[in-house]
Design a protein that fits this description.
This protein is α/β, with parallel strands linked by helices. The chain has a domain at 2-183 and 233-261: Rossmann fold (3-Layer(aba) Sandwich). The chain has helices at 11-22, 40-48, 62-71, 86-91, 93-114, 148-166, 200-209, 236-252, 269-280, 304-310, 318-336; strands spanning 2-6, 26-31, 53-56, 76-79, 118-124, 171-177, 179-181, 215-218, 230-231, 233-235, 255-261, 267-268, 286-289. The structure holds nicotinamide-adenine-dinucleotide and uridine-5'-diphosphate-4-deoxy-4-fluoro-alpha-D-galactose.
Length: 345
């Protein structure tokens, strides 16, 4: 299939590009590089042995999207592009509504103009808010999010559901990711946010390699077995494979569907720290801090709909996730310090 990946140069998009190229799809990456590096396309090519097309562009540029979709005869879109920092979204809500919401409207209009009917959307477990029950199934109520980022995800899902009612020939799959971590086993692509990481794993990795001095553990008084927050971590390669399966599903289905992508079990912050210590052979110094605003105690999913509908199940465990994240951190810190050997060895 000829597939356009908006935000395809980012963390999840780049891993999905590798999986799709390896499966024989034609891949076009469309990204404004606001949170990614132009070198990623070479790394994807090195891993997959085939070069995707890269177009530097913004999803708010409807004309460029129309030109790209039509000239490349695109059959399906995977829509990753968006801003994703929860804290930043509270400080700069307009940026989030403009980029994520207005950007998505521009994309959906371009798709309509070009007759592209298949769409996979990067949604998030954040649409469930504070869970009333665990594990979370797709029929659990979605709730008002606690921040503008989360609201854009829910609003886009709702907009897509309306579009699917208006045009029954559309095929739309909203993938609700739980907590993607890890990296491609080559260490060539992974997650390396600019500045101080917001998310647990990139932070832990930088503490392990000595790029940051210590981890702050936000809250040890939650109603969880060890008091720290519990999440359903999923290897980014499992997630990428989930997109390939969703694309197959979209090629023969119609309508709007939401599907959880997670492993179906939770790990606490302390359990993640211990797994990372095992994978890296490094001690992770940490300090207990008060809870972080807007955090929930625990979430994990029931991934059985993904198994039934898409024929997908996560196959990598927390040790695989930490091993691959550590390998990427070692290679990335070596690349950034231009040294021949990694500081992590
Ligand atoms: P990422 O920031 O690594 O990738 C997003 C990509 O989109 C970046 O390359 C960025 O340059 C690009 N982009 C942003 N705005 C754009 C615009 N206006 N036009 C064109 N390109 C634009 O993030 P990621 O972790 O790969 O996340 C991908 C998607 O998955 C996002 O929509 C995110 O909200 C969603 N998601 C991520 C997580 C997570 O924990 N990583 C969890 C749930 C959902
Ligand atoms: N945590 C720490 N210290 C840190 C960072 C995180 O203790 O430095 C804790 C958090 O309090 C939480 C857990 O680690 O208990 C996971 O936090 P993350 O920031 O890694 O992930 P979140 O679950 O808060 O959010 C992530 C993405 C959201 C997405 C959500 C669900 O950041 O965009 O997963 O997919 F919506």
């Amino acid at each position: 299939m000829r597939v356009l990946l908006t935000g395809g140069m980012g963390f999840i998009g780049s891993h999905t590009a590798v999986v799709l190229l390896e499966a024989g799809h034609e891949v076009v990456l469309y990204d404004n590089l606001s949170n990614s590096d132009a070198a990623v396309v070479d790394r994807i090519t090195e891993i997959a042995g085939r070069r995707p097309v890269f177009i530097e562009g913004d999803i708010r540029d409807e004309n460029l999207l129309v030109e790209t979709l039509s000239s490349r005869a695109i059959e399906a879109v995977i829509h990753f592009a968006g801003l994703k920092a929860v804290g930043e979204s509270v400080e700069k809500p307009l940026d989030y509504y403009d980029n994520n919401l207005a950007g998505s409207i521009s994309l959906f209009k371009a798709m309509r103009s070009c007759g592209v009917k298949k769409l996979i959307f990067s949604s998030s477990s954040t649409v469930y808010g504070e869970p009333a029950q665990l594990p979370l199934t797709e029929s659990c109520p979605t709730r008002k999010a606690t921040n503008p980022y989360g609201r854009t995800k829910l609003q886009i899902e709702e907009m897509l559901s309306d579009l699917a009612v208006a045009d029954p020939s559309l095929s739309i799959v909203c993938l609700r990711y739980f907590n993607p971590i890890g990296a491609h086993p080559s260490g060539l692509i992974g997650e390396d946010p600019n500045g101080i990481p917001n998310n647990l794993l990139p932070y832990v990795a930088r503490v392990a390699s000595g790029r940051l001095p210590e981890l702050h553990v936000y809250g040890n008084d939650y109603a969880t077995p060890d008091g720290t927050g519990v999440r359903d971590y999923i290897h980014v390669m499992d997630l990428a494979e989930g997109h390939a399966k969703a694309l197959e599903y979209a090629s023969h289905s119609r309508g709007w569907t939401a599907v959880n992508l997670g492993c179906g079990r939770g790990y606490s912050v302390l359990e993640v720290i211990h797994a990372f210590e095992k994978a890296s052979g490094r001690k992770i110094p940490y300090r207990l801090e008060p809870r972080r605003n807007g955090d929930i105690a625990a979430n994990w999913c029931d991934p059985s709909l993904a198994a039934r509908l898409l024929g997908w199940k996560a196959s990598r465990n927390i040790d695989d996730m930490c091993r691959d994240a550590w390998n990427f951190e070692c290679r990335q810190s070596a690349r950034q310090s231009h040294s021949e050997t990694s500081c992590c060895k």
